[in-house]
Amino acid sequence: MAFNIPPTNMPGKPEPFTLHVPEKELSAFYELLKLSKIGPATWWNQHTDGRFGVSREWLSQAKETWLTAFDWRQHEDRINKFPNFKMTVDDAETGKIDVHFLALFSSNKDAVPIVFLHGFPSSFLELVPMMELLSEKYTPETLPYHVIVPSLPDYGLSGSPSENVEMTLDRAAGIMHQLMMGLGFSDGYVAQGGDLGSMLARIMSVKYNECKAFHLNMLTLNTGEKPPSEDLSVQEAHEMKRTETWAQTGLAFVLEHGTRPATAGLAISSNPLALLAWIGEKLLEWPDQREPLSLNTILAMVSLYWFTDTFPRGLYHAQVIQTMLKGETLPISKEKPLGYSMFPRDVALLPKAWAHQLYPNLVFFKAHEVGGHFARLEQPKLFLQDIEEFAQQVRESFTHV
């Protein structure tokens, strides 16, 4: 398999991994899905515009497709076309944890290591389209980067530290950093993130010298931070108004996750249809509605959550709400090179003028005309163009270490 040879100087020992859900688990999933009840018609669930969440009609049709037409094995094959690994990371706070990651390793001695950190309710699947583009464009000899796409701690195919240790943003960021150190990238790496991944990348930019630069496709004002005085364009003002409306109508789930993670985790993971309704709502609402995600993609994302028991484990993303309620802010470096790709239909934005005033270290900014919260999945070509341009700008940080 191409791109599967890690750097020779790495202290860690990644083991090749192949994803295969046992047939017994697949059969149990289909039986449980078949028996899962769809609730009665109500005034709210007859609306199909999303203002009250997923409609009964959509959930019924999605269930039928999941049962009769969806092929999980096809998605496994797509995932397994890339080098998959698991590596044990020994973190000082959480102890040993098995971390899963996809990789495109380069044999170019000057390759820039980049770790791509997914968000919620997402997974490494969000970055697969970008990896497909890279594997088509480059060979292992010409690839300018080492591309590392992990399952975040407590997500997907990565493990949990312990039932007795709470996962936090700081701990998750530390584990991702230790992964990069274990892979031999102690001379420096770039952290890229969206949603939850953007929070981890921000933390890594402050806590770890080896994180030389960071790129985000989600950036917002900090709690209590006043908008800069620069006027917004008509389009920017429109998008900011839209995100304000979403903050007033679409954030209830985070409060539930953050304040009652035990109840939410147990209830929503009780059967596949409950999980599909809860996560499907976000996968329907948060992308750019002009180019929505396909049902096949949504079912693949939710299936991975189901087969890996991700949902009840991966609720530490709601810690950011607790941080905001306390009036605290997430750290972010204002010295290291920062890149920001703004996709207009994301649920939270930072307009160009504000970004430049708040972050003097902003060396790359690109405002796109299409794309939403899952931009890396929705618009992989545009996203990859941004990453390549940003990587070229910050490459100097790696040539003088």
Automatic annotation (TrEMBL):
Keywords: Hydrolase. It comes from the Eukaryota. InterPro entries: AB_hydrolase_fold (IPR029058), Epox_hydrolase-like (IPR000639), Epoxide_hydro_N (IPR010497), Epoxide_hydrolase (IPR016292). GO terms for molecular function: epoxide hydrolase activity. The active site is at residues 195, 316, 373. Gene3D superfamilies: alpha/beta hydrolase (3.40.50.1820). Residues 15-126 form the Epoxide hydrolase N-terminal domain. GO terms for biological process: epoxide metabolic process. It holds the Pfam family EHN. PANTHER family: EPOXIDE HYDROLASE 1-RELATED, HYDROLASE, PUTATIVE (AFU_ORTHOLOGUE AFUA_3G08960)-RELATED. Belongs to the peptidase S33 family. This is Epoxide hydrolase N-terminal domain-containing protein. It comes from Trichoderma asperellum (strain ATCC 204424 / CBS 433.97 / NBRC 101777).
